[in-house]
Specification:
Two copies of one chain form a homodimer. By secondary structure, chain A is an alpha/beta fold. Chain A folds into three domains: about 25-275, Rossmann fold (3-Layer(aba) Sandwich), CATH 3.40.50; about 280-445, Isoleucyl-tRNA Synthetase, Domain 1, CATH 1.10.730; about 445-500. The first copy, chain A, has helices at about 45-65, 90-95, 100-115, 135-145, 160-165, 175-185, 225-235, 250-265, 295-300, 315-320, 335-355, 365-385, 390-410, 420-435, 440-445, 450-465, 470-485; strands at about 10, 15-20, 30-35, 65-70, 150, 155-160, 200-205, 220, 240-245, 270-275, 280, 285, 330, 485-490, 495-500. A four-stranded parallel sheet of chain A has the order 4-3-9-10. In chain A, a hairpin with a 4-residue loop joins strand 1 (about 10) and strand 2 (about 15-20). In chain A, helix 2 (about 90-95) packs across helix 3 and helix 4 crosses helix 8.
Chain lengths: ~500, ~500
């Protein structure tokens, strides 16, 4: 890949345009994605976000960029939205009667397990909010020094109105400060900040608050928005390439990040802002109150009233990638069933492809056929270059899979291709499935049930052979099973087997 | 389990005696284990340590204690032992030409993957050294305030001689300060500390040092010993129950931890100090310079000159647990082969046990037989109560497995047991293998190769049936494979199969 050519285009939410992606310091790319708040099981919307950015991370590397992917873990400061804004971690720790860091650890582990199941690559750095308290205090000091924050009674707030007048607030979300002021609720006496729009950089800890650190303003804890400004700039610099996250984080979280970054460093942080869209179930918004929200584990097992059955993690990953990350993704049993069939078609063609071997024959080569295969291979790149359009890429792979199956069935002559074209077909299909889309061949990994089923067949044939005194077959089965270390035991009740 | 009875005894390295384990605040138990320095692949000695404490963690919980298990990740401050003492993380980061935190992340992920393979439970809290800089600065301040440290040119050192005079140094390792002074090398000009024995609590960062934080003494980074004092007491309190780690950490690391804890909190930290012993290979110390040190992955694949072949992770885990954690563990191909055979014997008996079902018959019950089974079950508990003696526990499980196989083969009548005894046998065998020793049945998880082997047998039988015009057999195979979604394709060259 020639990195001088920057062929990737991304839809940049801050300019609301599709732009050519030009890294600040090519071939290096810095990408920050907002990670989970680890106070409960990771939800499916998060998984979609992380699968989407996993493919973006994979493709940028495949394209030739050297990517530093940073994704944080939020273990402090993320407040609940109810009136008595409580820290989500602390609330869960109280419920579970454990130390808050035990809650964080438990759900961090859960998060990692789920993303491992969905074959997401780990980021290069996964910084933790409580691991960067010192840096958060320093950024708060810098924002205070720049005049965009004020301290009241041990807490420090960002002064949104002042920042808006001098620099401008709302660029990412397109919201106007007048409208925002008109629409904020007046929560009397709850907080002593000057203006409802202002947000906490540092919060004073009540006596009963467990997570607390010493600061120049007394004991307290950092505000939620601050950690992402701190950790993105610490590991990627004040001015980096990509910032990603779920659409729901655009406002206020990302808007506040930009304000903090500009106040502290004069830079906006990222140049390209990418957001993944929300999930729906049978056309309705997925939400707790509607009872139609299932966890990743429930989708895998099928153990949820909305689901007819479960789906393998790779089928779910494939299903997610069939929709572009910036579109709403609708879950339904029908759509998942269809995705499962499609996924296995793709995998079967993949197996067929890797069994094919070409003996080139110049007399049989067909220029039109070669051109078409080359065009389809090129199209896989083009669709990924077009704002990482995995939906289009999958469509192109399906066109290739029809070719592959035709070569395999003999309906098309494999010899119509020359060696470079066939090699390109193999490389493209393999790479886009495995390296770029990060799909694994699920059926290859199963084993257990299939093994039991096959052994049942063999033991039934053996039984029949013995009844028919066909000792040749029954001896053959015994010897062949022996070489596989399978030991068969005949007892009165049943014949059983085990592996030695 | 009656928690009023504290029946567990542990060998306490600080008293050099086997003592009854009485938690400070029963049923709660706090346990801290020194985790890895994440600058390269985790080595096998570390895996042995973490497998050992995993079993201790499992057994304490099985016994009924509520355990908070804290195991740290060292990502800063661990200096190399050569003359120009360099931070291990930074050295590796330079070699890899990446940011130090990328090195930490890469090897933290590797570490987690390896422990996952060996079926170690994650600790309740896994704190990171760089995530506790503020707390390390605070403890340094406390030690300075207590008069046991001094600052020179932006670094802070612990004053070992002064501490020794006033409180006493060397209790854990049994070393005398006079001998230590006589034996330390004089590294001229390398550090400006007062005494060679003194160790850094905080080190000034050179201009080229990448990992640096602001502190009251200028920009720098914490000393290695400090993090464990800080993180153990932060999450377990100044006075907690168990501190574990490899024998090589006893001095100076754990000795320095105790000194820091006493200087800052007046407590020694842990009451019980447990150390795992070292590894040898064919009787020789495992070491880089001897070329006989293999990584966990190499032991699994067998890809190392010293190894004849590879072993499954569960076989290795079982092999490790066959030796008491405080004894030297010697690796050899013969010992590993023997362990593999023993492991599969244990697993086979486990499978047999779970297939047995008892129809109680009062006439056939045998008091002596029941007493023996009950005694062996009790012995499993007793051996774990005796300083977590997994070697003895495994020996007891083997005695039980001989019983189980005899019941299974009909050499002993299962009906000689009454229902409670049989239930106890099943519960004990299941629990000790699965819950306490943390072993999984490795052969159950394979699948892939076995499936291929079984399909080969079936396809050969099918081929022979077709040649013999035995359509019954060939149709049966087709139909049965259909129900398993296995599709067979006959082509000129070969017959292939796939799962739909």
């Amino acid at each position: 890949m020639l990195l001088m050519e920057h062929l990737i285009k991304v839809y940049n939410n801050i300019s609301r345009k599709k732009e050519t992606f030009v890294p600040i310091n090519s071939p290096f790319v810095g990408m920050y994605v907002c990670g989970p708040t680890v106070y409960n099981d990771v939800h499916l919307g998060n998984v979609r976000t992380f699968v989407s950015f996993d493919v973006i991370y994979r493709y940028l590397q495949y394209y030739g960029y050297k990517v530093r992917y940073v994704r944080n873990i939020t273990d402090v400061g993320h407040l609940t939205e109810d009136e008595n804004a409580e820290d989500k971690m602390l609330k869960q720790a109280k419920l579970m009667q454990v130390e808050p860091m035990e809650v964080a650890q438990l759900y961090t582990n859960n998060f990692h397990e789920v993303l491992y199941l969905f074959n997401c690559l780990p980021p290069n750095i996964e910084p933790i909010a409580t691991g960067h308290i010192l840096e958060q205090i320093e950024m708060t000091q810098a924002i205070l020094a720049a005049g965009f924050a004020y301290e009241i009674d041990g807490s420090v707030y960002f002064d949104v109105e002042k920042f808006n007048k001098k620099v401008g607030y709302g660029k990412l979300s397109g919201r106007k400060i007048e409208d925002l002021i008109a629409n904020t609720r007046d929560l009397d006496g709850q907080e002593n900040k000057r203006n409802n729009l202002d947000f906490a950089l540092w919060k004073k800890a009540n006596p009963e608050h467990l997570m607390r650190w010493k600061s120049p303003w007394g004991e307290g804890f950092p505000g939620w928005h601050l950690e992402c400004s701190v950790m993105s700039t610490k590991y990627l610099g004040a001015n980096f390439d990509i910032h990603g996250g779920g659409m729901d984080l655009k406002f206020p979280h990302h808007e506040c990040e930009i304000a903090q970054n500009q106040a502290a460093t004069h830079y906006e942080g990222a140049r390209y802002w990418l957001h993944t869209n929300m999930l729906t179930v049978n056309g309705q918004k997925m939400s707790k109150s509607l009872g139609n929200g299932f966890l990743p584990a429930e989708l895998i097992t099928g153990d949820h009233p909305v689901l007819e059955r479960g789906y393998a993690p790779m089928v779910i990953r494939f299903f997610m990638l069939q929709t572009h990350y910036s579109s709403t993704l609708d879950f339904s049993n029908e759509a998942l069933d269809a995705a499962e069939k499609a996924y296995f078609r793709l995998m079967n063609a993949w197996e067929n492809l890797n069994k094919l071997s070409l003996t080139p024959n110049a007399n049989l080569q067909d220029a039109a056929e070669m051109e078409e295969v080359n065009r389809l291979c090129e199209a896989c790149h083009q669709s990924m270059n077009d704002d990482f359009n995995t939906a289009m890429t999958i469509a192109n792979l399906f066109e290739l899979s029809r070719k592959i199956n035709a070569y395999n069935d003999g309906k098309l002559a494999l010899e119509s291709l020359d060696e470079p074209t066939f090699a390109r077909l193999q490389a493209t299909y393999n790479d886009f499935i495995q390296v770029v889309l990060g799909l694994k061949n699920e059926q290859k990994e199963q084993g257990g049930k299939l093994t039991d089923g096959l052994m049942d067949i063999i033991l039934d044939i053996r039984k029949a052979a013995r009844e028919n005194k066909d000792w040749t077959t029954s001896d053959l089965i015994r010897d062949r099973l022996n070489t596989l270390n399978v030991v068969v035991k005949d007892a009165k009740e049943a014949t059983t087997w085990s592996v030695n």
